[in-house]
Design a protein that fits this description.
The complex is a heterodimer. By secondary structure, chain A is of the alpha/beta class. In chain A, 30% of the residues lie in helices and 12% in strands. Chain A is built from 13 helices and ten strands. A nine-stranded mixed β-sheet of chain A has the order 6-5-4-3-2-1-7-8-9. In chain A, α4 crosses α6. Chain B is an alpha+beta fold. In chain B, the strands form two sheets. Chain B has a three-stranded antiparallel β-sheet with strand order 2-3-4, with helices on one face. In chain B, α1 packs across α2. The chains are: A alpha/beta, B alpha+beta. Chains A and B meet through β10 of A and β2, β3, β4 and α3 of B.
Chain lengths: 390, 92
């Protein structure tokens, strides 16, 4: 009815987020090399059960339709199922990401009974060797067991969530095959240089040629494959991919971390993008509505050197977090700019504000590709949305 | 459902699994069953959707919300699209 494109209406912000990611814990049984939140150890200050339930009450009042729950590994919280049930009972839908560790047959049966819960199982290789090099020994089998349990319980349409890397990009068809076999849906998201991802990004992010392969593959599969809107930087190749194609940070997306800190998006756990804390007076709603940071992100963006580029209208300069953690100016091109307009500067790149990695196994930075570990959280803004105008 | 097939004279309501959130540009609509999000891009359309449940017909809901006869076709097609995506349903 109104000609204004949806993206432009969203740029000035919404009454409540569309996609709110809530990392329930930094505790994780895995230690993925590219973990966005540098998870491993539980933070002693994490929100209590009562605080989590009160936060859900607030989401209900704000009419947050659903939350993306992640971590860490959210299911290792002893009150995970209680939080899940409470959210559903209070009309807040849940999509949660898991590495599968707690998805027993019994848990799968429980999930099969709920219409308001979606599950995303993280898998970063269609083969055990490719997956386990990123996510750690045994993680492939854990994920497969979880998917077997979900399928056996009759849970269809769960998501198989893959972070696209240099090493698994040749397996896109195989990932699709795995998802199809389970009656599941494939979800591909972008590798971000956030958290421990900053340490491995140079070696793991897709090459320029691979970016083009990915673009063509995504175009070929349309809306069958979910992307959480994470590849909008590829629009510079020509046509926009399905989705909103904008940076939603602070506009349609935000992150609540395990201790209640609110960040602009799941990929920006850094003090520069900290908008407030849900424990403060006024709670989450006040942070969302009144934070100075969010007001700034919702204001007009300059576009800097990208302004003169013919692709600017479609890629909008790319991902803020990817620029920030590769030492690039926020108003310039994305580090994976498909027009080749950027040169990442790791020497000047900021470090994540906190590191919850397991102390016992410092993550080898020399990820020749035989490193151990793993990751847990594949949260990405606009996960699963297939927006359509009215 | 094409626009013509949308019955303006039937009674309609928001789908029980759908939820509406008013926004500056109109509203967001989310369906918990289909997991689809949709947008009401005008405050008048939001008023129409909100009025459906209390009015005997969609036509009456439009009239109550200030939709003129000339604009009715436009709102009929918007309602048809919402019915097609299960955001609204006929009252039984």
């Amino acid at each position: 009815m109104v000609a204004l494109p949806l993206a432009e209406r969203f740029e000035s912000g919404l009454a409540a987020p569309i996609c709110l990611t809530w990392e329930l814990t930094y505790a994780c049984n895995l230690a993925c090399v590219h973990c966005l939140s540098s998870s491993g150890r539980r933070d002693p200050g994490e929100l209590s059960t009562a605080e989590c339930l009160a936060l859900i009450d607030e989401f209900e009042r704000m009419r947050v339709f659903y939350v993306n729950i992640g971590g860490g590994e959210p299911t290792v919280r002893p009150d995970f199922w209680k939080i899940l049930d409470y959210a559903v009972d209070h009309h807040v839908g849940v999509k949660f990401s898991t590495n599968g560790i707690k998805i027993t047959r019994q848990a799968a049966d429980r999930l099969a009974d709920s219409d308001y819960v979606d599950v995303q199982v993280s898998l970063d290789g269609a083969t055990e060797s490719v997956n386990d090099a990123i996510r750690g020994a045994g993680s492939y089998r854990t994920a497969v067991r979880a998917m077997d349990n979900l399928a056996a319980a009759g849970v269809t349409g769960f998501k198989v969530s893959v972070v696209v890397t240099r090493h698994n990009i040749g397996e896109l068809d195989d990932f699709k095959g795995i998802a199809d076999r389970y009656g599941a849906q494939l979800r591909l998201t972008r590798l971000r240089p956030s958290g421990r991802g900053a340490d491995v990004w140079s070696e793991l992010h897709p090459t320029a040629d691979q970016q083009h392969v990915l673009y063509e593959w995504l175009r070929g599969h349309g809306e069958q494959v979910l992307t959480g809107d994470s590849f909008f930087h590829l629009a510079g190749f020509g046509e926009s991919l399905p989705g909103l194609n904008l940076c939603g940070a602070g506009r349609v997306v935000c992150l609540v971390d395990p201790v209640g800190d609110v960040y602009a998006c799941p990929f920006t756990i850094h003090e520069n993008f900290l908008a407030g804390n849900v424990r403060a007076d006024g709670g989450f709603a006040t942070v969302w509505r009144d934070s100075e940071l969010f007001a700034r992100l919702r204001g007009p963006q300059a576009g800097g050197t990208c302004r003169s580029c013919s692709a600017f209208d479609s890629c909008r300069g790319g991902c803020m977090a990817a620029k920030f953690f590769t030492g690039l100016p926020l108003d310039g091109p994305d580090p994976e700019c498909v027009r080749g307009m950027s040169t990442p500067d790791f020497a000047g790149a900021p470090k994540p504000s906190a590191d919850h990695s397991h102390r016992r196994a410092p993550v080898p930075v020399t990820i020749g590709f035989h490193g151990p570990p793993d990751r847990a959280c594949a949260e990405s803004p606009l996960a699963g949305w297939a927006p359509s105008g009215d | 459902m094409s626009t013509e097939q949308f019955d303006l004279d039937a009674g309609w309501r928001l789908h029980p699994q759908a939820s509406v959130r008013p926004e500056r540009f109109g509203a967001l609509l989310y369906h918990f069953g289909t997991r689809r999000l949709t947008f009401l891009t005008s405050p008048i359309l939001l008023a129409v959707v909100t009025a459906l449940v209390d009015e005997p017909s969609a036509r009456a809901a439009c009239a109550k919300s200030g939709v003129s006869e000339a604009e009715l076709g436009k709102y009929q097609s918007a309602l048809a699209r919402l019915a097609m995506s299960d955001m609204i349903c006929e009252r039984s």
